[in-house]
């Protein structure tokens, strides 16, 4: 209850109302004290008028007049003459004098607070102006105990009234907040829960209807989010179904093409010149088809294990890649070189890093072969305080514009005819799994450079994109 929005509004409202009442209380109690003293001055003035009407008053009547005015004596100044009008014994000396003729607000508040916190009964002198110009001033002496008692009673009544006002205001605001804010917010939360439980059910999509501007904006934002997410979920489901179908077709097609590849190996032994001339083209076409099927199956599995990171030497991995790719050279003047420092070690998964470098070197080699030009593919590496850097460069013709537009997009980023563009996509995902990045550093007529960055720190791994 208290942790809810309306509950906290209830508490805050009560606190703020009480704070406002406290700020009002101090000036109010000071004003009440002044009114109380003025009332005693006025009573004393009325009592002194009886003496002016009759110069001879017996002691009992004088004592009764002073008792009704709640003062000990009354001094009236008329025509520059200070005259003791009524008097009685004062039980103790006068402790303070209050002049009410021209007091400042700060002085009144100070005297009021001081009187509230002083429980002792004291005798004070009060000076003021007579009512209706009946003299120059009037002066009385009185006790402070009745004054303090009256001030406390008045203060308690103010605090009680403030408490009632704060409770009523808080309850009204509580009800208003629940109707205007909490209920619509709960409605939005309900839509979110229903949509999360069944995204395919259109009844869980919110229909904005709030009258409050901010809530209306929240409902419209949720509607847009739900609509876009529903479309993405449907697209993902269709892609998953399509991917499953493609994986099955690719699996069966790969088996068929593998058998065809074995047959073409026998065709190459034919003595017919025409067959021998066409056989290499057939072999290359079937090899590309088999490679495409294998890449599609590898990409569609989407079950790549996380990398097993440990410190490994890089040179043996790059040497294995170079040796493997040299076996695939088709006669073009392509040189494969490794310029990795022999003692360089880095933190990586050796199998996954081998696949990444192999993909990059193979792409570079195939780019040179397709262009029918000689060149060099080089693997180099270096390190600094924060990262290890691996570069795979070639002196090929550079990447075409179409490949640059969708370089790391599956099935769209192929740089050569027949390529699916999955090699770079898979390699980038593997490198991101290491917390690093795979980027195209440069490309052009002078060649292409891909750069792998692997972080040295285990606590600075980048999130997967």
TrEMBL record:
A single GO molecular function term of this UniProt record: kinase activity
EC number from the UniProt entry: 2.7.13.3
SUPFAM superfamilies with a match to the protein in the record: ATPase domain of HSP90 chaperone/DNA topoisomerase II/histidine kinase, Homodimeric domain of signal transducing histidine kinase
Transmembrane residue ranges: 6-30, 158-181
Residue ranges annotated for the Histidine kinase domain, each copy included: 248-458
Domain of life of the organism encoding this protein: Bacteria
InterPro entries membership: HATPase_C_sf, HATPase_dom, His_kinase_dom, HisK_dim/P_dom, HisK_dim/P_sf, Sig_transdc_His_kin-like_C
Coiled-coil regions, chain positions: 215-242
Keyword Cytoplasm attached: no
One Pfam family linked to the record: HisKA
Catalytic activity: ATP + protein L-histidine = ADP + protein N-phospho-L-histidine
Keyword terms, alphabetized: ATP-binding, Coiled coil, Kinase, Membrane, Nucleotide-binding, Phosphoprotein, Transferase, Transmembrane, Transmembrane helix, Two-component regulatory system
Enzyme class (EC, first level): transferase
PANTHER family in alphabetical order: PEROXIDE STRESS-ACTIVATED HISTIDINE KINASE MAK3, SENSOR HISTIDINE KINASE
Name this polypeptide is given: histidine kinase
Species this protein is from: Pseudodonghicola flavimaris
